[in-house]
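Example 3.2
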Amino acid sequence: MVLERVDALVIGGGTSGLAASIVLAEGGQRVLVLEKRERLGGVGTFAEGLFAVESHIQKWMYVDYDRERAYRDFMAFSHGRANPDLVRNFVDNTAYTVKWLEGLGVEFEGVFNNVPGAPLVWHIVKGMGKSVIAKMEDRARAKGVVFRLGVTATRILPEKGAFKVEALDRSGERSTYEAGAVILATGGYANNSAWIKEYGYELGKDLIPVGHEEKMGDGIRMARELGAALEGMGVFQLIRVSPFVAPVPLECICFQPSLHVNQKGLRYVDESITFVFPFDGNAISRQPGRTVYVVFDERLAKLWEEEGVEVGLGRIIPPGTKVKVLDEVKRAMEEGVEGFYKGDSPKELARAMGVPEENFERTLEEYNSFCERRYDPRYGKDPKYLRPLQGRLWAIRCKLGFLGTLGGLKVSGELQVLDEKGEPIPGLFATGLDVGGLYGDTYDVSLAGTTFSFALTSGLLAGKSALGFLKALKSS
């Protein structure tokens, strides 16, 4: 039994789904959004800003970085693995996305970068992503978009010129919807432990999801059942996470370029790699248990307290933020938070961390010798970050986390879902983290804000493509 018939059905009420629904509703279509959670927005609420090139804001700032350079940088960074049509359409439409958001009432603080020396492409929004979601929800409701919250789409069945979508609410009641076009916006598979295990990780143990809930790959799975192809699966937006997994000042200490060791008590990298957090995540992914320790002394703690941290956390905690490190660490330890350690000697600290004492003692002795010589023959660390560690030592345990899955369905440049032969599945579109083909094997943080930007821009593009499909369908 068909419960409701609409022109377009959007599965997922996050950033991408909201953007697509607005385009379709403004195009005169009856739009229904199914969202499995009880609220809209998803991880987009936590975003700081979005990537864009050739925006009017950048032009006011005389930013010399255009679409052609951005396109080439995307393709080069992916080593040619990215979908060139998808990258081109995305990059070319990011400036429009900024203007479109301003039309909704979104305000911008300015344009920044997230890596020293990277291009100014990160358009920071006032009120973070939460304000963007609120503005989009207001516009969608004003245009007549209907939302069904707490309803999970479970299956898509092709019909002649339409789709039937089966769904289940939280009480277990089943429902069926019919639509001429379906847009998938379910946010990837960050909480699907079985899928993630296929790529060598134990979810929640050696790979920690940051901010994601109930992301089970619903859209990807349902499209696969219709014959859709996959692209880029197993690629994650890796980042180190502290014992509390929260954007608080103390978490910045985990990213500072002091001495970092693994569970064997051995140094494993040039620690200034933390300036580029996805590269740092890659390095941690190679370590035993995907667990590492940031080691510092009280002199370094005083430096970060008086002069500020050297590596920030986005615009929330910019470089130079002064952090009362020891006060915060002591408070965490008093509260019984795991992952914080201290020792009056290298051996005592190693014992507290649970790493081999002899290994750590040798590592620290060698590292201090490099610092005294101002030369790191092992990993080539910049001398300005070579500071010997002496006296009482402290350490914070860090694990490997991720901000989202970056692979999914293979799509055309217009966000049409493709089958194994590369042909579009008529009427089926995908957006955001349900899409593969934008990345190679690593997220490029030098083009900061790409995931939020792609969520928005792919939603707009998919909505436009679906609108064209529906108009052609009705005229045929």
